[in-house]
Design goal:
homohexamer; alpha/beta; about 10% strand; globular
């Protein structure tokens, strides 16, 4: 059986660019097929209302809606639409989403809140397309190297397995903290784990500065250094996450969890060996 | 007027995750609206045939199809579909796409070939979702910091401007070489430019190793080091690209090209100053 | 006139090791003389009660009491003693001290709260003398390179000047935030400033993890990674602070504020030039 | 029994800021209590004469006097005072102290000479409070990571144990060379040991440049580069010492010697394990 | 028996400065003696004709001619001279030499082609003696750390052994690819091997840029960034090669192949142990 | 006129591999021609006696003899031979050569002593061909980036100019200290200069450890860490020298002194500009 996964992307968080790829990293997983609709950078109710229903055209077995702040008006609209539909649906969002966790629960929606997926420094003096991409690169590096993406891989993998097995889907209620991320990271060296933990925590704090710089301070002399500092923190977090990964590589203990020939998740540590189920 | 841009993503290259975001980095550009459809990691004809026509539902002013190797069967199908449609369309792809440049020309399609957007090391022993995301992070960093994304921003910006002005769209025929990327990078320091150039060239060579490791060598004892080396090259290219950007930052000459209040592209160098048109 | 400064140290924060040296970095400042008493690492009421009154033996013009958490029992005792004495007195402490700011105000005490001077990871599995010193090295680097120490230098410098001039001492009520630290840092390059700001913020968050690891989590399997992560954050903050300083060095714009021949604070940027008043 | 340790600090070397903390890194060692008196940055006979006798007020079991150059007039005065007193006393100083080793021996004083604790670049064009603190940070890092502080911990620990046991104190006659420091560092990896050794040697040479730049060259065009170079050497030594420590961390073999519940010195290598006696 | 080796150097490649030293790294190998003649940086036929025959004065058992591009006129002349002589001779050259491999074979000459020994950026705006030496430093680092020099050591070692044993010399026909270099590198850690492989590949691509910048582009505005980029690539390759070596050091598995007391090649990994045959 | 330079190399120091190349970095200098003879790694009297006289066959205008320790027996023999010959001759050696400076003066020989060109760690447990080349790479980097090679270039350049002009040659009596090296380095940024100075000083100290490890300590448990530490110092010095160079590059002030079209030495700073005489 091929499980069909419908993904709706509105606006962007660090998990958005890779959420579909995480499920099928070599494009050869036999048991899933992904369909995407999206509204690019914008995530207002008008965009969401136009794109979210479209996913139904692809008749997915379950849906994922991913955006910044699940509590914002656009994502709220998406939650409404998906809650009303008859397919299992999961909301993936950043830390502010925790505020509507109970609400999502009541709406019958699963959720994954990625704490270290911070708001960008959306001030024109700092943020051009190049800076935006560079920032996303840093956050992707943090979320990859710390284990956060692996936890998402496994969480969604369980849904896929349930659908495949014809079982009822248990929707995730997951807030990815540093503890949970680095546990999924399966570090062998404790200092690598500590570095990953620290990287995740630093990335988690980036949003504090960006919220301050974008919404709370209006004088450009003051907010530019703040949002620039936030991006420096993101870049530093990325470097630290890479350090963690390099330690595991130096010990040839880097955990890898590729999808296997039958679509399930394998596991391996020693680079020259094959993964096992 | 709001220009509606339809983007179809099948499979993934380093430009895919950010192509829509590049056009509207702060989600506040007033004169465009983006709609996406996609098929996730897979890019076979069957996926492409299902998703590509769907973009028409959003009635875009022009379309972008982005995937690896525009000459592969899936993308070939997409080109066929888009060529037959009556909207301007652009194909964005990686270096192997250069082989079908003339064909795209004959099909009435524009194209952007990103030389330094290399094939990934798609061997199960190396490539799990974490490694995949980490590799994409590196390539995004290279393409951002060298200037390649800015060149894409400007190239598509010209199409948007033409549509907005009611003029005929001149479709791009662009192969992004190191020279062109770093020219768009607008480096002030010549060594920063040289480092960016070198980073772009190194990234361009990653594909050679990955093609060798994925298709030409079948013994895992031999191909694992090759694809692992390719990823080390990508990571090194990213570091070098960052070095280039850091030099410009240290001189406070980093070029930024944010979209302005009216949607056109601004320009600035000094961090504490406002961008100008 | 030689202003005599009495300093009492109980317990240790990152500012403690250098507080006296900051005032007289080359040991040749003609207009001050410093006397210290202290109780080493311990800061319980019994130690404080024994050492704090001793400073009076040196007949200082004003006093500084420096310790972790000014609200803790030992420092509370010190505040009581100093408040009752007839000499101007300043409390220097870390972020938890902000909770007793009003109280210090009422006690007629000045205060300097150093936000980025975090609690150490005081778990035996992590913290031996070597790790302790290494952590202090990192915090000292952050507080030096971001500008926090310079702000302390200037703040106490004003008290010295007032005493020297026979004026009434205006006691400082200073919470050193990232903004205030980097302002004192007098960075010329805005990215250096942003890096310093980020370093200060990261250091400020170290305490969150250390408090969690030391007081809130009791399972060593869980708290060791947390306190180890806190120390990785401190180390990363130090590296980032150094980056900021190196940028200013590369531009030959590094601000220096040495004490001049007459004891006042000079200022200079260009390394090969003399400082000026 | 609680051993009471009296420490007198006059002037500053890289060991001064942490000498008391090294003995009680978590402020919970049950069997010692420390009292400090000091004269800040200055170390002239007049300061020493005032502060040194004061330590007696605390009735210490033994005393430590720490300062630069034990042969200088102020420290000479301190040696005289301590020699005349009836408590065991130890002088801690930097490399020039070796010249009065025999003299100290005759005075019945123990001594610890820290070869890699160099004179600072005390020229006003370079040395402001920020540079001073930054330099101390580097030296503290070198002395911590190479093992020098551990050797001091153990050396003074033996005195404490002797006092505690009511035995006669054997005063140390210790010159901390690179060999002795890295032996105390207990490196498992031989390259880490070599890096630590090299870091210690580089730090040992810093003083040569600082002495030249401070005392032997009078033209500021010439001495500024020399003292600036000395500080670059210190910074480089710190980086190399960190490299050594990071290797041990990557192998999870980093030696730690925390004080145990009963105050004796424990030992551990594996981060997640408890220390043992 | 002492094997006498005659080496002729004309012009310079990254292997030239150390080719003789590689055979006798501690100057104590008992069974060889080396004689050199050379023409410095120049390698035109007139220089080669004067120096090449001179090597015969030393009556060597076999000869090595090392230069850039064995197909160029000067080296062609050298091949002619050596082919006509009655001693075994080997040509060592860079990648362009592969084009005359068959020719060398027909001439009865052995050869070693070092793929990653690239042409320098010989443009006056970039290349002064300092830049030249710095570039050579980088290439030497790459060729050393990846294993290329060890492969040359072993290859020539076999010739020496044959001469010593009175056997007929089997002339090498060796093209040093990344695969062959890292095999000789004997890396234990697979990521170290991958980094070395990547470093070798990057160095191999340097020549592409330098050929373009030196011969194919004539506008200095264009060629300066190209040759500067080539040197940045070389520098980056060196850093990556060092990373590989540092990993092996951190694991204490760094392979070393010193010449033993009898002149044969030993082998060791653990630093503190003796090499074995 | 073409000045013919005869160079004799016996044994190796860090200057040896590039001494001839420094004079003609692009192999196109019209007014010199170089001839080399050498004895490889060995430098005993028997080798020197065989090779040194051979240089006369090329009829050079002046001669350079380069080796470690000019006072050792082999080099002493070379000095004797060159002193007896009727051509101007210069000895280039490392720091121990300073001990025979007067003697060389009496022999009518010029000399260049390169203080930072240290003895290698010639212990079999450490030094194989790979380590040897790697060490030389580091030393070459230090001597290039600090300015030492430029000073040699200029010093020999003056001899060439004198010969060319038919003037009497004034033989150099040059000891390259850190001061002289960095003066030739022509750094614009004072911190770059300080880093270069520090790098040169660190390299100068490498020999102390290598002499100790090779000649004064006989227990391999002790001498291996010492010689390994010496090589770490060399590697650190190289990194610091590179930092200095990178600062000048970041400011586009890197001094370059290429040989011009007529063979004289040009000068330039701005990368994109032509050098001037």
């Amino acid at each position: 059986m091929v499980v069909k996964i419908g993904i709706i992307k509105s606006g962007n968080i660090g998990t958005s660019p890779v959420i579909d790829l995480i499920l099928d990293e070599r494009a050869d997983r036999p048991n899933i097929d992904v369909r995407l609709v999206g509204s690019g950078a914008k995530m207002n109710p008008e965009q969401v209302e136009e794109v979210a229903p479209k996913i139904a055209d692809f008749d997915p077995d379950f849906c994922i809606f991913i955006s910044p702040n699940p509590g914002a008006p656009g994502p709220a609209k998406a939650r409404e639409i998906l809650s009303a539909a008859d397919k299992p649906a999961i909301i993936i969002g950043d830390a502010p989403g925790a505020r509507v966790a109970d609400e999502m629960d009541e709406q019958g929606l699963g959720y994954i809140i990625v704490n270290a997926d911070p708001m960008i420094g959306a001030r024109r003096e700092l943020l051009d397309p190049t800076e935006m991409a560079s920032f996303n690169s840093d956050i992707i590096k943090v979320l990859a190297a710390t284990g956060a993406y692996r936890l998402i891989q496994k969480t969604i993998g369980e849904i896929i397995a349930a659908v495949e097995a014809g079982e009822e889907v248990e929707l995730p209620k997951l807030k990815i903290t540093a503890e949970k991320a680095v546990e999924a990271g399966e570090f062998t060296n404790p200092y690598a784990k500590a570095k990953a933990y620290a990287a995740y925590e630093i990335a988690s704090k980036v949003a504090d500065l960006d919220v301050k710089g974008c919404f709370m301070v209006q004088d450009s002399e003051k907010y530019i250094p703040i949002v620039a500092a936030a991006h420096e923190m993101a870049s530093t977090a990325a470097k630290l996450a890479v350090e963690a990964r390099e330690i595991e590589k130096a010990n040839d203990t880097l955990c890898r969890t590729p999808h296997m020939g039958d679509g399930c998740i394998g596991n391996k540590c020693v680079l020259m060996e094959k993964p096992e189920k």
